[in-house]
Amino acid sequence: MKRFAGYTAAMLALALVLTAAGCKKPDGKDASASTPVPIVTASPDGEVTQGPTATPEPVFSDVPVVTRSPDGDVTEGPTATPTAAPTEIPAETGSQGGEATHAPTNTPTAAPTSAAETPKPATPTPGSADPTGTPAATHQAPVPTPETPNDHAAVYAGAVVDCSSMHVGDSFYWTLDLVNEGSCLFAGTWLIEHPVAFLTPAAISSTWSGGLLSAINATYEDEAPYSDTAQIAVNLLYEGGTGSDPMGEAGHSYAVAALYITSFDYCGVQMAGSLVRIRYEIAAIPGEADMLHDGNGWYLPVPITVVTSAAMEPPLNAVTHGSITVTDGKLYFKH
């Protein structure tokens, strides 16, 4: 069992690393100079609504990380290293007439991975985890294990998106979800690998209206909270194996999300929902040899690595979840 203060310091340090200022967006522009753009959402019946302007993800300057223990001791840790923190923008999909439509392409849902999935022979592709060319992450990455067994459980899943009718240049939203309620989630770090040969990551958000953080905040506005509040620091572009605290595999490209709670009244996060949303643009259409196959068709996996996943235990302790289940995302390009 780890001391609460130590875990808090580690997560705040990681959050600062992920969202430090002085960085560049993927297009080379300074992130701090971005102009707010409308948030575009789709209702269940498909109607598109343009809401208030987006609020950029938080950024922090390169300053020492300072934390306070429950006993009142103040600890100054390492400084943050600037990394990219792009601003969320609405998806754009091109029509046959060349006009751009601002709207999410899909409402993704999580689905369990079929045990009958088998990889097809493939030629080498960028970002492949296997030198023979098999698409990345055909096997699940190992998950953290606690020092002492416990009953806390966390279930994570990537969205399943039907891309079979899309073309090069189209875009869609994909989410990483915390599936189960009652996880007591105190802190977590997740890597989301990009199939770089076929997708271009364009934007990432943790604060859109349909996400977990918004759902938690809504319960406080309704004066009926039952989950602690939280923050999620995000980084859209991270090269695996780099930085002062290397994560993932060298040569692989990831998005990173790091959650930490900001209140301590309900023993961690108790609600379920989407942790982050990523907008991808299609750079190339994969062939059958580039994908995996199951009963629903041919798909690209979106591999998820759980770096840390901790539950809160009273009064101020954090332990790695005793059970961590992960289901990679799927992008179906052919049925």
SSE layout and pairing:
Layout: E1 2-3, H1 4-19, E2 38-42, E3 48-53, E4 64-68, E5 74-79, E6 92-94, E7 100-102, E8 109-110, E9 118-119, E10 153-162, E11 171-178, E12 185-193, E13 199-205, H2 212-221, E14 230-239, E15 253-261, E16 273-282, E17 292-294, E18 297-302, E19 304-313, E20 317-320, E21 323-327, E22 329-334
Parallel strand pairs: 10-21, 10-22
Antiparallel strand pairs: 1-20, 2-3, 4-5, 6-7, 8-10, 9-17, 10-11, 11-16, 12-15, 12-19, 13-16, 14-15, 17-18, 18-22, 19-20
Polypeptide structure, described:
By secondary structure, the chain is mainly β. The chain is built from 2 helices and 22 strands. 8% of the residues lie in helices and 39% in strands. The strands form 5 sheets. Strands 8, 9, 10, 11, 13, 16, 17, 18, 21 and 22 form a 10-stranded mixed β-sheet that branches. A hairpin with a 3-residue loop joins β19 (304-313) and β20 (317-320).
State Rg: 20 Å
Mean pLDDT: 73
Structure summary, number of beta strands? 22
Poorly predicted parts: 19-134
Which structural class is indicated by helix and strand composition?
Answer: mainly beta
Primary descriptors:
22 strands; 39% strand; mainly beta; 2 helices
What's the short version?
The chain has 335 residues and is mainly beta. Helices cover 8% and strands 39% of the residues.
